[in-house]
Every structure is written in C-alpha cells, then in structure tokens.
Design goal:
Length: about 200
C-alpha cells in the first residue's frame, strides 16, 4: 500500500509578517491519502488496465482513476470515478457502475472507450443492489431495489457494452429472465425484492 502525505504550504511573506508581529503560526498537515493500485492484463487489447484507488484514511469514500498502459505508455482514461468497473474486452469498453453501497454514489453508469470517449448513460433511480457482467456476454445487469406504496420491488436494467438499454423491467417478486447477446441466450435469476440499503 502506498501512502502520500498532503501538506499545506504557507507563503514565506506570511511567515515573515507573522514572525515580525510575534504571532505563532500553526500549520496543520492534512490527513494522509490512502492509495492502492491494482492491475489486470488484457491480452485482447495488448494492454494493461490499472485502477488507482484513493481517498481519505479511514473513509469509505474511495475514488478510482483508471489508466490504460500500452507499450509502456500510461494514459488516463477516467479520473475520480466511483466504480466498480466492468471490462468488455471484445467491445473495447470499460463500464463504471458508479455505486459503492451507501458510502458513495455517482449519478449513473458511465461507459469509457479505449479511445478516450466517455458517455454518461442514465441516472440511478435508487439503491443499486447489483451491478455486473452477465457471464461472458457483452451485457451488464443493474438490479435496483426501490419502494412504491410501502413495498419493495426490483427494477432490472440490462445494458449493452455501448450503454444501450436492452431491458428495463419492474419485478414485484423473484424472477428468471432471458436476454440474448449476439444470438446467444443468457438466463438470469433475479432474487425477491429487498428493502433499499
């Protein structure tokens, strides 16, 4: 784990004036930022994806910077996203769920292309229970737990790797659904709705 200390710098003129007036100067150091990096080799891209997680010590509010490393060159694709990210190797896309439980929430999922494009897809309608790739497909499952008339229900959205909505459906009970990608069907079980949070 890498650590980086942030310091507040007091301009020399302020120090000289304070000393001449006999005033004590208190300089407080900011809390150290916690930094952790993880990487994964993506052979289909001939590249490495590096995630740099950073945030205040003792906080659940951790943000992620995503870099693409090709032939030794490190290029920033995304800065200060919430994550977690999902890689779609065949489509050369990275999707950020933008939801980390109740600790930190982004506006909604974001699609990043390896060429540097960034597309905000939609806003989260409420508590995101699950966000993940459907098996080895180019589909992403978003399961929201929402409330209506005092009862929980599931809102299920399935997105393509490009961020297009493939399915958007409400379920009052557990359900099995089938979605297809490139002609191949995928069966997904949606558990019974739970209270948000």
């Amino acid at each position: 784990m890498l650590h980086k200390m942030n310091r507040r710098v007091v301009p020399p003129v302020v120090v000289l004036v304070a000393i001449s007036l006999g005033s004590p100067i208190v300089v407080e150091a900011a809390e150290p930022e916690v930094v952790r990096e993880e990487s994964v080799n993506i052979s289909a891209w001939s590249a490495q994806v590096v995630q740099r997680h950073h945030g205040p010590r003792g906080s659940d509010a951790i943000l992620i910077d995503v870099y693409l490393v090709e032939r030794g060159n490190r290029r920033l694709l995304a800065k200060n996203i919430v994550g977690p990210i999902v890689l779609f190797e065949d489509k050369r896309r990275i999707l950020s769920c933008e939801f980390q439980g109740s600790a930190i929430v982004g506006q909604g999922p974001i699609v990043f292309s390896l060429e540097g494009g960034r597309t905000q897809i939609m806003k989260h309608p409420g508590y995101l229970r699950e966000c993940g790739r459907i098996e080895r497909s180019n589909l992403l499952l978003l399961q929201y737990n929402l409330m209506a008339d005092g009862k929980p229900y599931n809102l299920v959205r399935v997105l393509s790797a490009e961020g297009k909505v493939v399915l958007d459906k409400k379920f009052d009970d557990e359900a099995d659904l089938t979605v297809s990608d490139d002609g191949k069907p995928y069966r997904v079980h949606i558990p019974a709705p739970d209270l948000p949070g």
